[in-house]
Design brief:
With 156 residues, this protein is mainly α. The protein has seven helices and two strands; from the N terminus they run H-H-H-H-H-E-E-H-H. Strands 1-2 form a two-stranded antiparallel sheet.
């Protein structure tokens, strides 16, 4: 007989993914918002993205709203779609030319200096979103609460 009930453990597995992905998106969205989406629009314009001001605001809102939705586990499959679009866009427009690795040590002389950021972390975010969207938000989530409430209503 196993010491740990793996069925119970599996219900908690999405929680760390939700916390890090949700927080990560919120942090990136907040950074864009605090600098002003116009600053991000300049970056988008520089790399040739059409309608940079509209897409700067859209990206900021997707990161903030999507990050919050993932963090609390609300409508995870739906929130994951625009978030994946943002990630895939960043992968193609910014990170792809720099290769796989996200951490590239350039120099350790008078201090540590790192180089350009590759697409490794983008793939980790995409894999996490795919796991959450396909496997569910798990315990301590709005989605689980909604599902339990629906079952209770159907039984009564």
């Amino acid at each position: 007989m196993p010491l740990i009930d793996t069925r119970q453990l599996r219900q908690w597995a999405p929680l760390p993914l939700r916390l890090i992905v949700g927080y990560g998106f919120l942090a990136h969205g907040w950074a864009k918002l605090s600098r002003g989406p116009d600053a991000f629009a300049v970056v988008l314009h520089t790399i040739g993205v059409p309608a940079p001001h509209v897409l700067a605001w859209a990206t900021t809102l997707v990161e903030l709203a999507g990050g919050f939705a993932i963090l609390i586990g609300a409508f995870v499959p739906f929130a994951s779609v625009p978030m994946a679009v943002v990630l895939l866009t960043a992968l193609v427009t910014i990170h792809w030319p720099y290769g796989f690795f996200s951490v590239k040590l350039v120099e350790v002389a008078t201090g540590t200096r790192f180089g350009t950021v590759g697409y490794e972390i983008i793939l980790l975010y995409l894999a996490s979103l795919a796991a959450l969207a396909s496997g569910g938000a798990g315990r301590l989530s709005v989605d689980a609460w909604r599902q339990e409430r629906l079952h209770r209503l159907q039984r009564s």
